[in-house]
Amino acid sequence: MTWGIRIRLSMMMFLQYAVWGAWAPVLWPYLVNPSPQGLGMTSPQAAFIYGLLYLACILAPFTGGQIADRWVPTQWFLGVVHLLGGVFLLFASKAQDFPGMAWMMAGYSILYAPTLALTNSLGFHHIKDEKLFGTIRVFGTIGWIVAGWILTLWRKIGTPPGTSDCLMLAGLLSLVMGLFCFFLPHTPPAKEEASDPLAFREAFVLLKNRNFLVFMIIAFVVTTELQFYYLPTADFLNKALGIAQENIPLTLTTAQIAEIIAMAFFLKLALRRWGIRKTLALGVIAWPLRYIVFAFGPIGPVEIMRPLVVASLALHGLGYTFFFVVSQIYVDMVAPKDIRASAQSLLTLVTLGIGNWLGTQFTGWIMKIFNPTADVQAWTKVFLVPCALTVACALAFLLFFKDPEKEKSVGAELEPTMADSN
């Protein structure tokens, strides 16, 4: 891999996650706050808006994966959908009611969802050593951080009334990403003829391997519990710990800074020393530790708990790197070459799609039961729920997932099965 390709792949990841990072951590308050600070939506309506991307991850990624595996160069597809997605985001930033916002975010989500898997598959296509993927993917985290910093500065300068600053920033970044994609390294459809004319059907066949199935089940459950971080954390930091709204985008980047450090300095070392299994397990364990700190946040002295909770955000970055980035490496390692794009789409379906969508509904249900808005100390009960479930995931993973480096690859093991599936 030349330095020219490395720089372009790094910039691709930077812009890909800057688009998402511009709006995802901070859109919730704008949706639920009353006018003129927001749109005054109900919590279920706001949850519906957030859930649109996850629904799109269920419906759209296999379309994108199929196109990249069979018909169209990946960089062309990415360029077109990001340009169109930017237009939808700019219209969404001016929406004044729930129906208008819902339609615009639905259009954007359908376009953006396939790109999450396709940027990974494009990167892996041009990287000879899968363990180098972290050095490229880290720029996605940098993009997420920079988007948060820009938004914090934007808010200190001021935002026009009736406009979502985070969606406007995301739209502009998406347009830049769309233009840039046409300059990415050429990534043609796979030349090998697959045993199944529909690549995503072969990706489902991977689930016949017990180890791969265990991995997918644990990844699914873990993802559902991460919504307790993504949805209420901004509100939790503001109402339970007194952090100002304008400073929350900057505060939340603590997690991404930790993610950068983990990917840049520890990921490759961890994979070499501990292998896939132990590295994934460490990623799972990081989340219950963070939820324990969150649970004690409202009941301890605020001058102690505020910096402790902010510091614990770093555990999210560590967990994300050691579990989700390594998950992408694992899937690419075990999937046959001609269906890797669709295998990444399967991972996206199970985690970003079904897992995140169900997790959003579950989080909203738990929030409704304990109602931390009325009782600040109820945040403790809210965060003990994902704490218990992620501990269970860590134990199950250690008990049932074998180290893939000690067995034949899933792809090699299942190739006869795939041939027979016709």
Commentary on this structure:
- With about 425 residues, the chain is an all-alpha fold.
- The chain has one domain (about 5-415): MFS general substrate transporter like domains (Growth Hormone, Chain: A, Up-down Bundle), CATH 1.20.1250.20.
- Helix content is about 75%, strand content about 0%.
- The chain has 16 helices and no strands.
- It has helices spanning about 5-25, 25-30, 45-60, 60-70, 75-90, 100-125, 135-155, 165-180, 200-205, 210-230, 235-240, 250-295, 300-335, 340-370, 380-400, 410-420.
- Helix 3 packs antiparallel against helix 14, helix 5 (about 75-90) packs antiparallel against helix 8 and helix 10 (about 210-230) crosses helix 14.
- The protein starts with a helix and ends with a helix.
- Residues about 405-420 have low confidence and may be disordered.
CATH architecture: Up-down Bundle
Number of helices: 16
**Overall pLDDT, averaged?**
86
- CATH homologous superfamily identity: MFS general substrate transporter like domains
Which geometry do the CA atoms define?
globular
* Oligomer designation: single chain
| Number of spatially distinct domains | 1
CATH topology: Growth Hormone, Chain: A
Percent helix, as a range, is: over 70%
Tell me the Rg in angstroms.
21 Å
How are the elements arranged and paired?
Elements: H1 3-23, H2 27-32, H3 43-59, H4 61-70, H5 74-92, H6 98-125, H7 133-157, H8 165-181, H9 199-205, H10 210-230, H11 233-239, H12 248-296, H13 302-334, H14 340-370, H15 379-400, H16 410-420
